[in-house]
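Researcher: We're teaching a course module on how sequence relates to structure. For the next exercise, students receive a sequence and then see the predicted structure as tokens, so they can try to spot secondary structure elements on their own. Here is the exercise chain.
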Amino acid sequence: MRRSRAVSEVVSSVSMLAITIAVLGAVGVISLGSLRSANSVLLTGSQNAASADGLLLTVVSTQDNSSGTYVWLFNYGWTAAPLSRVYVDGGQTNGWTSSCVPLQPKGICDLRLPPGTHGTVSMIFGTRTVALTL
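Model: And here is the predicted structure for the students to work with:
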């Protein structure tokens, strides 16, 4: 009788372990499905926003030397956009020049600022703003 009780306890412990693993596995599968769904919704939303505007900008490089502070930008979208304003630390700045007139799709251009320009630089391209810290 003692032996069957010991076997019964082992069987019940193994059964509880198997049930726990099965439940945790099911919860994990449901969680991964939920994460994939949320990622899909976010990706679709950002792609729709980009499709509506067609202007996708990125900063390629920056350089500061004695002749000026340079920012190179690339438009990997499909809409051209002119650079209209430049702000440094929140204030509109003068003395900048650019080859971004307009920045063509799949094109690269440069923004030339006075030497020693540092701080947060915001560049306005139509309705888009590109910001970086120099």
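Model: If you want an answer key for the exercise: The mean pLDDT is 82. Residues 1-53 form one domain.
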